[in-house]
Amino acid sequence: MASPDTAPALALQLSEAVTRRSLIDGLDYDVHLDLRRAAASFDSRTRIRFTSGAGSTFLDLKAEAIKAITLDGDDVDVDRVRQGRLPLTLTAGEHEIVVDAVMAFRNDGEGLHLSVDPADRRPYVYGMSFMDAAPSIFACFDQPDLKAPYTFHVLAPTDWTVIGNAPGTQAEPGVWEFESTQPLSTYFVTLVAGPWHMIHDEHDGIPLSLSARRSLAPYLDADAEELLTVTKQCFDEFHRLFGIRYPFGNYHQAFVPEFNAGAMENPGCVTFRDPLIFTSKVTRGERIQRATTVAHEMAHQWFGNITTPRWWDDLWLNESFAEYLGNRVTAEVTEFDDAWIHNAWTRRQWGLVADQRPSTHPVAGNGATDALAALQDFDGISYAKGSSVLRQLNTRLGDDVFFGGVIEHLTRHRFGNATMADLFGAWERAGAGDLTPFTEGWLRTAGPDTLQHDAALRALILTPADADAPPRSHTLSVALLDGDTWRHESVEVSEAETPVPAAEALVVDPDEQTWVLALADPASIDVLIGRGGGPNEPQVRAGLWNNVRSALHNAEVSPAQVIDLAVVTLPTEQVDDAFRSLVPWLSGKAVPLTQEPDDAAARLHEAFRERVDSAEPGSTLQLGALQGAIATAGDPAVLHRWRQGQDLPDGVQLDLAVRWRIINRLAVLDAIALAGLDAEFAKDPSTQAGVSRAGARASLHTDQAKAWAWARFTGAEPATNYELAAIGAGMWAGSDLSHALPYVDDYFSRITELQSVHSGWVLGEVVEAFFPLAPLSAQIAEQAEGLIASGDLDVTVRRRLVDATDELRRRLAVVEKYGAPRVGASL
Ligand SMILES: [Zn+2]
């Protein structure tokens, strides 16, 4: 037994993957895992059979310790494993490698994640192989185009249930045997193991199941019917659209703790973040989000799992496709027929903002030559922009051609790999005609074109993202205010100036028909403020606020005007997603940029309170407005009364989520002590409460609180991924930044070594969450830019730092144009 060297694993290069793919074929994995210790580490024994040409390559292996390795029965010196790789020199013919290793359980949401539920001390395990973590579970050739069947054998504590990609049975207590899978890519091989609470069902011959931690059992039971109904409706619709049966046997949906992403599409065993099992009352928007996530992962079973990108540079296609179909199918066949309005509120800005960053990239062909660099492009561009572009393509081609091409693609590359060129070839064969101009304009050119309404000119002014690229034309609608009614008018925009009818106010692209940065014009906003309200139609309201958010992002509207508009529209808002999107944006961005933040927050608070009181008691609309009222509350006395259940508006439930929102706001206002947080946690010591407590603790206005938070940033003290995000937000919350400001220099000096403390997904989250944005300091922007220019940053750190610095520069531009806040801290 030997401990491998501690140097970080190397990221796979495209050239290495191409060489290895050309050498290796006929792979078959047999994996034995012994999870019975359920602490720190597990045993992993992998037998890999394959045929090979003569040549050199390597096996991926990220072990804590290696007991033995054999190649074709001969011992291999385990010390040859370096930086996560075992070099192999192969002769032509059939081979067998056996690796007997001890692997570390991880606690960062990657590899085999082990966590202990704070509610009852029960341990739970799940696998997350995406995108390069499979070798920390089993030895493998880790790249998407070396697909293979897997046969798993798992030993586990006798009270555990183990679920994998293929159906499994418990042969005897604690001994789990699984059928061989269909050919799978390493990145979606998984395992879910623990004393889960399970629910079983069946639909159209497909065994369905759900699982969650036992402490969530009553909540999973309460949500099961909704989840299973959505799943069944989506299965029917995907079968209709694709005409290809779901081929992976069972369909299990596991809700797992501390999961980084929303969900992961592992064939037959999808993993979801378990805050999606609702333990408190939620808005309709949160239910739509969950339904579209369920549908998104189901779409991947076909597009991504049956046919998989050859390399990471085409992974956008998986996500864009799943995002588009997830929204579409949810809107068309489930009770959540307003999924596109949800998309307008919650997803579009994510994509537009990403597409305006200095780090923007084309949707397709990101040019990623190594796996880690590609991970950085899993952003709003790959999801929201890609989805919007595919929706445009679907409108243009029609369903017959669109799905005709997709079906041919999935049939031709069944259980194999393909590229974007393969799919576009299939579309062209299905009758799409030459798609080159479309591909060049929308998929290979980065950045959005900008559209701005000029009321004086009665025209839309088009500014292309890239003046040298072939021009893109836009088909879209505008909503025009004419007297008391809004009407939609279709326009074609391909020139610098496109005339539009005269209107008192105008909203650009409310139906999200094109991908464009539409900036609200201040004259239209003034009209709406003067009239005392916005449009009634939900899609137009969402479009209006997309125009407004984009305008503030570009310093084309003043924060004061934004607050004025919010104050007149919030009291008549009809969609709770509006609150879900606008509450963090208004309180986190617009309010701190106004010259009088306290006054702005107070006016918003009154507007939210008005909606809390006018909404139907107990409605989700009331809940959304209440969340806004809490986030903008300035009077601790009101919050303390609410917390004790006094003076609560009729219909409001003081559940865990509402209680912790109140506590968190009290911490930001410096109106609660650490003991108060601990007392609240003791009442219900759940994971969710633990995360909330961590965020609130970091928000406290004391040197001790900031030192406590900083020890989590530096890794001196452990914290879970969810806690780290909450702590970073708390670090810079509130208007008194004096206790946090001493850490600015340390942030920049430590960031260069942060990748040795945090890794993967969590590393990016930590860089972003702890970035000192709140001080609105040009000096901080210069510090960040100096570091970025110095060149030797980890790729993840660099990307997040570039984006955070851009956000800071944009906020400084707003302050410069419209005036700096008159209160708050400065350097
Ligand atoms: Zn996805």
| Termini gap | 54 Å
Strand order of the largest sheet: 5-4-7-2-1-10-13-12
Class derived from helix and strand content = alpha+beta
Please report which band the strand proportion falls in: under 5%, 5-15%, 15-25%, 25-35%, 35-45% or over 45%: 15-25%
The number of helical runs is 26
**Low-confidence stretches at least 5 residues in length (pLDDT < 50)?**
none
Largest sheet: 8 strands, mixed
- What gross morphology would you assign? globular
Q: Over the alpha carbons, how many angstroms does the gyration radius reach? A: 27 Å
Q: State the helical fraction.
A: 40-55%
Bound molecules: zinc ion
Mean pLDDT: 95
Q: How many E-type strands?
A: 28
Write the layout of secondary structure elements.
Elements: H1 14-23, E1 24-39, E2 41-52, E3 55-60, E4 65-71, E5 74-76, E6 85-90, E7 93-104, E8 111-116, E9 123-128, E10 150-155, E11 161-164, E12 168-172, E13 175-178, E14 191-194, E15 197-203, E16 206-212, H2 217-242, E17 251-256, E18 263-264, E19 269-273, H3 284-302, E20 307-309, H4 315-333, H5 339-346, H6 348-356, H7 371-375, H8 380-412, E21 416-418, H9 420-432, H10 436-443, E22 449-454, E23 459-463, E24 474-482, E25 485-493, E26 497-499, E27 505-508, E28 516-519, H11 522-531, H12 538-553, H13 559-569, H14 576-593, H15 597-614, H16 620-631, H17 636-643, H18 656-668, H19 674-683, H20 687-699, H21 703-713, H22 721-731, H23 744-750, H24 760-769, H25 778-790, H26 795-818
Parallel strand pairs: 1-10, 16-17, 17-19, 20-21, 22-28
Antiparallel strand pairs: 1-2, 2-7, 3-6, 4-5, 4-7, 8-9, 9-14, 10-13, 11-14, 12-13, 15-16, 18-19, 22-23, 23-26, 24-25, 24-27
Bound molecules: zinc ion (ZN).
